[in-house]
Amino acid sequence: MKNLKYIGLGIAGVLTLASCSDSFLEEKKNYDNVTPELYEYYSGCDARVNDVYSWCLPAVNDQTWKFPSMGNADNASKSTEEYCGFSDFVNPQIELTSLSATNSVPDYIMGTPNNIQEAVYGRIRNINDVIKGIKGSKGITDEEKNQLLGQVYFFRAWCYYNLFKWYGGVSIVTDVQDPIEGVTNPRQPAHVVKDSILSDLNKSAKMLEAKTAHGGWTGNDYGRVTSGTALALKGRVLLLWASPLFNRSNEEKRWTDAYDQMSEDKKIIDACGYGLYTESGVNAKGFAHMFATTTQNPEAVFVTLYNNIIGRGLDNQKNNPWERSIRPSNAGGSGKAPADLLVDMFPMEDGKIPANTGTYKKLETSSLSYDKSVPFKERDPRFYRTFALPGYRWAYNGDASVIDANNPSEGANYALWNYVWYQSKADQDDPESGKTYGADNLLLNKQGVYVRKKSDDLDVNSAPCYQFSNSNTGYGADPYYSAAPLMEIRYAEVILNLAEAACGAGKLGVAVNYLKQIRQRAGYTADKNFGLQANLKSNQAACMSAILYERQIEFAYEGKRFDDMRRWLLFDGGVSFDKIDGCPSTWKLTGWGGNTCTWLGFTPFNGQRRDKIEFRVADEYGQGGTTVNSDPIAGVSREGYAVDLRKDLKDQNLKLEEWYKKNLVRIKQKGDSRSSDHSDLYVNFRPNYYFLGFPQGAMNTAKQLEQTIGWGNSNAGGANGTFDPLAN
Q1: Counting runs of H as helices and runs of E as strands, what totals does the chain give?
Q2: Phi and psi at residue 717, to the nearest 5°
């Protein structure tokens, strides 16, 4: 089979793989430009399966109908503690509507009508065509059919899962339908959609078991979905179904069913060769390295592979842009700035949440004092692999001084010094100014703190996955052409999904044991109970809080947090459904004491705000200018202060703390918007956003579709929608 990291885009590319005549490239009758003859060859069937991969694999893009969130500052991640800047979902000044193109609810249902590759159901139609063609093939064996169909059933389930989590109930299409005007498949309730997804995943797992449940794919087939991939996604679906978003009464049977099935399925997942990625080394080295491991990574349960081929328009070029997007500008990148909430919420090195900074009130706070002015001191090992602050080594393979002579020249010895100064006292005292200038030629292109998560660190990976370009013009302006893989489902999620299901089912000891596995990989030890508090085996709410907190830390900047917040109703605790016009009584949250936030001890996210952190030069140094040579503390030695994560941190951090105390001050820069009178604004996620409505364009295209309750129906004069995703 063709290696997935070289698969091109679209059917035209994969047709060249088929061992069939050129007549197959003539005009075709169906909308995919393929004929039934293509399926009479294994290579043709395989090419169609590869086409499904090219359409459906996740990518390092902002979250859209095509792609789930992967940690960018997109609509999903900007609705969480991870980034500042009000997303569509949490903007207090704008309420989303389904009746206008202005402030429209995001479209995750339609895509681009009349374009099979750019419409959601066009993607599903393509999958259904492949299923029909392979099933009907007389040119391949039953064993080959199972091997191919198992992969395609997974992707149909994947497509429907991504609709299910937004809308609850959608139309189910399992045969090949041509896009004929006026034909509409009715929306199905959430439980029907859920059952359809699980059916496809069970088929996928069964069909692929013979091929993949003995260690998984190898060689050029590595990266293809396996029985374990299907069952891991199944676990995610079962967990979603048991969560408060769908399980308003906290029906325990959903939790026990999820736990029982997931426990049994884990045996197959493990047999496929998956497990926690472990590697010796200090300061969570293995946790960092797993994101740059390109072959046979046991952590990568569902993965998109990339390559570092360079060349404009090459069909086989498939680069991962993440490395460039997080690197500082003086190392050839652009940089991402985390919000203060998550930086301050990360555990201390004893595994406990910092006092007076967290929102999990049923979790014990750390006995270690947290000093916000030096937030790097005594933190969870994953902190240093998630964020980069002034004074930390962040080596790379390259020399950014060839891009700009003022950039630091030694990538192999690069240390981040991103402290800032202001040109005037007025700007310095104005958190909205933004006129800060960063050291080491960062100037205006700087972040006060950087997201470091998933970085290909030269100190961790001596054979980087990227190529560094010396060009700063045209296509060569992007210096990182990375082959680092993208993991959509990690084995750590399999473990934490099981922990959550066990907790919901009342098996608290089992849940804690799974938590310990994740903590042990992070660097915690048994002598201190892996940093976990003692009552987790006896207090279900505290145990569930610990699991959600662990998910938030382990999967930071991987695009998972928004889904967790929605399914646990963490914006308001689920107390506001009665504010939705026409809301059925069955939507009322009756489990968890009627308020998930109160039950968990979680401060609702509504009413909070996020700002950016900067470290500016201390007052006694005054202000500076606008050039690289106008750094007010240029004469202060930094020699010997940069922290090296390859070594023990205690003494290094103490030394850097001393440098900070003498030279820097932590300040707040505006993150979330302010009002016109410069007053702070706060997160506001409306209750009807938990289940999205269809935008006006989708309703106009499919006029017979019911609109979701809580959203206006443009086909009925703006009347309230009538579709209930939770209906039996």
Answers
A1: 19, 12
A2: 70, 20
Q: Name the token pair of 13.
A: 């590319």
Instruction: Dig out the tokens for 525 from the structure.
Output: 């030890």
CB atoms within 10 A of CB 69: 26
**Residue for token pair 């959903």:** 254
388 pairs with which residues across the strands? 450
How far is it, in rounded angstroms, from Cα 417 to Cα 414? 9
Tokens of 653: 């951090």
Hey, is 616 helix, strand or coil? strand
User: In residues, how long is the chain?
Assistant: 728
Q: Where are the alpha helices (DSSP H) in 417-486?
A: 425-428
As a dihedral over the C-alpha atoms of residue 166, residue 167, residue 168, residue 169, rounded to 10 degrees, the angle is: -150
Q: Tell me the backbone φ, ψ of residue 687, rounded to 5 degrees.
A: -65, -30
User: DSSP 3-state helix, strand, coil percentages of the chain (rounded to 5)?
Assistant: 40, 10, 50
Q: What is the pLDDT of residues 378-426, one digit of tens each?
A: 999 999 999 999 999 999 999 999 999 999 999 999 999 999 999 999 9
What is the dihedral angle through the alpha carbons of 353, 359, 360, 361, rounded to the nearest 10 degrees?
100
**Residue 447 has which token pair?**
């972040």
Which residues does 168 contact at the CB level (< 8 Å), separation at least 6? 189, 190, 193, 246, 691, 708, 725, 726
pTM of the complete model:
0.95
Are the beta carbons of 352 and 531 closer than 8 angstroms? yes
Q: What tokens were used for 10? A: 């679209």
- Tens digits of residue pLDDT in 140-198: 999 999 999 999 999 999 999 999 999 999 999 999 886 545 556 899 999 999 999 99
Alpha helices in 440-539 (DSSP H): 491-504, 508-522
Could you tell me which residues are beta bridge partners of residue 111? Answer: 119
| DSSP state letter for 342 | H
